[in-house]
Amino acid sequence: MLCAISGEAPQVPVASRKSGTVFEKRLIEAYITENGRDPVTDEELSPDDLVELKTSRIVRPRPPTLTSIPSLLSVFQNEWDALALETYTLRQQLTQTRQELSTALYQNDAAVRVIARLSRERDEAREALSGLSVRGGPATNGDAMQVDSPGLSNQVIAKIEATQERLSKTRRKRPVPADWVTADALNSFAPVEKSKTPYTEARSLAVNATCDAVLLGGSNGKVGVYSISDKAITEELDVGSGRVTDTLWAESRAIAATSTGSVKIFENSQEIASFSGHSGEVTALAVHPSGDIIASVGVDKSYIFYDLTSNTVATQVLTDAALTTAGFHPDGHLFAAGGVDGQIKVYDVKSGANAANFDSTGPIVAISFSENGTWLASAAKGSSIVSIWDLRKAAVIHTIDVASPISAVQWEFTGQFLAIAGPSGLVVQQYSKSSKEWSEPLKNAVPSVAVGWGLDANSIYCLDAQGFISLLKAQ
Fold it and tell me: Distance between CA atoms of 16 and 32, rounded to whole angstroms?
């Protein structure tokens, strides 16, 4: 019999009840005192679990002094026993550490493989979603979906290029119309009319090109056409179930977006197209300067362009965040969308490439391009500050603090005046090209969730949270 610790024949052999292994009694007792476990099975072990084995013994003489050779041999024996015990413990710990390291490396390798697989599946899903396209028929065939959208057609691209070329040449040189509003006139603006509408939860207001009708909608699935001359709702359009989230005019066509993900197009009081390309709520609409292309953005992180000449989806592009607001550049070659991630994402209209990202302080609630073609106004949720971005510098060049939360911002046609609306009132800021300074010709306490400029900017229409439309004009 050999001791499992020292590997030598034991002087006082004992056996463990737990592992059945033979040990030298003094060595195993020392190990139990230090660790309390069986060195072979690592089970709990006490001296009571040791069984002394009966063997013939050789009586050892009384230990001599250290000056004798037998005494030195005894000391060497004790040292050897301690060394053997320590070596055994170290080997055991080394084996355990190797096993733990092997397990950790295996788990790390498995985690890396899972992450790589999930990343690949995510990229494939994004690629598939970015190619989704919804084809709208002449009436309500908006649910047909096509994967791997080929992008904008040559006809649409040609229209975008022609619009950009035409507007970029004339936009900067056109004079301010003779009857256009002045800062002095704005100083005397005050509410002159206030009309009640049935849309108590309306959040959007769109004034048509001739400034004789206002489009707005509420939570009942209805869109109302408010006649400015009659001062009343003269027509009501049914968009189906869901809340109306945004409205706009594309020449004579009325466009409405809903919380169910649909976009409806009406002309002469009739629905001429319906699209359901978004997988969630449509949050905003925008019309291209050509008047024949509109865009919608939604919580599904995508934006969609629609060709109104054929009533079909032109393309759908997936972004990296849920989108809340949208707008086209005055020349029509850029498209901007605000996201819940606090970024204003600017895209090339023709290619869909991300041209720039502007970081704000929170989810974007409103954006508006200036007619000068180089500025973009934006406001973040809960913020009282409007940021004026210079597209050439990709930086904020001016901020406007109106001291209350902002719901909407809107430049007028000449790019001189910026209307800023919020629940605490309406503010109009003016930028003077000659003095290169900002001023505030108008500040009124009329609460507003949406705002729109009237004919020649000589009037302003405001919509409040209770569905009242207020008209502000010079007194």
Answer: 11
Residues sharing a CB contact under 8 Å with residue 406, sequence separation 6 or more, in sequence order: 365, 366, 379, 383, 384, 385, 386, 420, 421, 422
Task: Please return the burial class of 182, using the count of CB atoms within 10 Å of its CB with bins 0-12, 13-18 and 19+.
Answer: middle
Give this prediction's pTM: 0.69
**pLDDT tens digits for 448-458?**
999 999 999 99
Specify whether the CB–CB gap between 136 and 308 falls below 8 A: no
Q: How far is it, in rounded angstroms, from Cα 438 to Cα 39? A: 84
Longest dimension (CA), the chain: 129
Distance from C-alpha of 460 to C-alpha of 187, rounded to nearest angstrom: 13
What's the distance, Cα to Cα, between the start and end of the chain in Å? 116
Q: What letter would DSSP give residue 59? A: P
DSSP state of 37: B
State pLDDT tens for residues 21-54: 999 999 999 999 988 889 888 899 999 999 998 8
Geometric angle at alpha carbon 447, from 229 and 358, rounded to 5°:
105
Query: 225-232, long-range: CB within 8 Å, 24+ apart, which pairs?
Result: 225/254, 226/195, 226/197, 226/469, 228/454, 228/471, 231/193, 231/195, 232/195
CB contact set of 227 (below 8 Å; sequence gap of 6+): 212, 213, 233, 234
Please give the Cα distance from 213 to 216 (Å, whole number): 10
From residue 94, how far is each of 87, 99, 101 by CA, in Å?
10, 9, 10
Give the residue from 185, 166, 189, 188 showing the smallest Cα distance to 176. 185
Q: What angle do CA 298, 299, 305 make, to 5 degrees?
A: 20
Q: Using DSSP, how many helices (H) and how many strands (E) does the chain show? A: 4, 33
Is the CB of residue 217 less than 8 Å from the CB of residue 206?
A: no
Q: For the segment 108-129, what is each residue's pLDDT rounded down to a tens digit?
A: 999 999 999 898 888 777 766 6
Closest Cα partner for 316 from 146, 158, 160?
A: 146
Query: Tokens 């994004």 label which residue?
Result: 126
Q: Quick one: tokens of 122?
A: 């995510």
φ, ψ at 397 (rounded to 5°): -105, -15
Contact 388, 376 (CB under 8 A): yes
